[in-house]
TrEMBL record:
TM ranges: 6-24, 36-58, 64-84
Protein name in the entry: Uncharacterized protein
Swiss-Prot/TrEMBL keywords: Membrane, Transmembrane, Transmembrane helix
Species of provenance: Candidatus Lambdaproteobacteria bacterium RIFOXYD2_FULL_56_26
């Protein structure tokens, strides 16, 4: 792989990252996963296909290698975005303790969180992304949600983490 291929992959990722930030600032889409897949996989994939078809300044293999650089960056970003964008309890506690200048007691830390805030917003996002749906007994995984759960559970098992730990 050449520096030009690596550089072009980074350039395409950076370009779509900036477009993603503008899109989110102007009109934040519902859900997270589907818009991220559209912004970082579908649109760049179409761009690479279009370049290969209409402006073939490189061979197909060179362009494919540049796309794989972009793809690697995009997949990592898509996987980490929900953790970065959501209200992570540990981060909220850190920010609260930092803002207090003198520390926080357990009741003050509990006061940082509204009742049901952590669960309600997550369930809503899962529904908007099409990962869960209402069923007879409550929430059920969609086909895509089941696939994603299997992938993450397999990955966690590979890391040696048990369910509910880590």
């Amino acid at each position: 792989m050449t520096f030009a291929q690596i550089g072009f992959g980074f350039f395409v990722f950076a370009t779509f990252w900036i477009l993603h930030l503008l899109w989110w600032r102007l009109c934040r889409p519902k859900g997270e996963i589907r818009p991220l897949v559209l912004a970082f996989l579908v649109a760049p994939g179409l761009l690479f296909l279009g370049i290969n078809r209409f402006y073939p300044f490189w061979g197909t293999l060179d362009l494919a290698l540049a796309f794989f650089v972009h793809l690697a960056l995009a997949v990592v970003y898509i996987q980490t975005y929900p953790a970065i964008a959501s209200t992570i309890p540990s981060f909220r506690i850190l920010i609260g303790v930092h803002a207090s200048k003198g520390g926080l007691s357990v009741p003050e830390i509990e006061g940082l969180f509204a009742q049901g805030e952590l669960i309600g917003s997550r369930v809503e996002l899962l529904g908007e992304d099409g990962l869960v749906r209402s069923g007879e007994k409550g929430l059920e995984l969609s086909s895509f949600g089941r696939l994603l759960a299997v992938v993450f559970l397999t990955y966690r098992r590979f890391l040696g983490l048990q369910r509910g730990q880590g």
